[in-house]
Amino acid sequence: MKMMTARATTLLVSLGALFTGQVSAVEGAERSGAARDVVRGAVAQEESDEDIYRTAREAITRGQFDRARELLGVLRERFPSTRYAPEALYWQAFSAYRLESMREALALLERQLETHPEARISDDSRDLELRIRALLGSRGDSRSAERALREAELALGATTRLADMSAAERSTMMAEQAILRTRMAMEIAAARATVTGGSWQEACEEDDIRHAAIQALMQMDSDRAIPLLRTVLRRRDECSVPLRKQAIFVMSQHDPAQVEDLMVEVARTDPDPGVKEAAVFWLSQVGTESALEALSDILRNTDEPGLQENAIFALAQHPSGRAADVLKAYALDSSKPERVREKAIFWLGQQREVDPQLLIDLYGQLGSPGLKEQVFMSLSQGDDDRSTGWILERALDQSEDIELRKQALFWAGQRSSVNLDRLQGLYARLTDPEMKEQLIFLYAHRPEEAAVDRLIEIARSEEDTELRKKAIFWLGQTRDERAIAFLLELVGDPL
Questions:
Q1: Lower CB count within 10 Å: N or C terminus of the chain?
Q2: pLDDT of residue 204
Q3: Is the CATH number of domain 6-194 1.10.3290.10?
């Protein structure tokens, strides 16, 4: 096998999820009108496209992807002919990807490749597009999975898959990935130097010394260090941000009764999102009523998605039954970002004490397909047979949206209680070609040997030519001897 290109390496790493069964939470983010207006107001005084682009890239460097996405949207609206147009489309798509708005990211990447195909950033756009399609494939999107596999074959120049790679080739892949990660780290460092003018390190050297002093004091006399840490956590300058985060970590090792009031204050008032998120994470380890009240208040009143997600996680760890009520109320609040509401639904599904019926009832109160799909995903994590039957009912309910029905079928197929026998006869009951295609995809990812027999049966007897071709494609992704024999039979092998 030839030395793989960086693009082929990226593709193989992305496609690994299709063969290892890695499935993560369903994507989907709803833009907040209020947040968009804030960003637009913030750049109203910017004088040039370069100013806005630089501010957006700075936001990406800091991990502020919501802000970056909106800034780049403003840039493209105000300066449609800007020289930054190709990069703006790519980085806006990258921000949407990091926010798990996969469909939005794909639309932006397709626009970039269509309008600026020769731009230097186009190779990165193709890589990101295929990474997203592979990820969507691992989440049940059969067409994205098929397209990603076909593109990977073209990129590699053969039908090589992860499972076919030798140890040496895997080592090469890992080395190339390390190079890519190093390049990204250098880019981030360069961006930071551009933003700060190289003065950040000099200005903050004194705080590095303070950090070392705190560490030494904690080892010798932790009781004397607590008042000092309180002083550190009340600082608000940018240089002290790493110091404040470290102070939270150090204080988390002490009796919660001594420091809980300060942690709540930091979570509510610190100007740095990362510091606030660290404090909220600490609150997830505290099962007190005051912590529950603080987390509920933060979730209701903050407009920072990252902080909201941390608060949702912290609430999901709280032993009080009221925490589930707070999460349910948030999931139903249409004024909140959809991406974060999905997290609330996800964590509801992870709580053992929560009756699955709560999620089933929640489904009927949700309007967004993305949120409804998250209910399927959350229910699929448990072992309640009633939930399995309910998800399958949604798959067969023709009054449901077809995309939701496909997702219901996919997530039902992830349940250990849904063996292949339970799916027997389902193909004949389905009337929509798209649903049949989804079931073919599901068979292709089942571990049972009999799944290959089902695919062969469909490829042999299905009247719809397109569906037969789908079954044949997925048979080609297996290494099963029966599949190989059948494919040879189709092509008329003289042997």
A1: C
A2: 60
A3: no
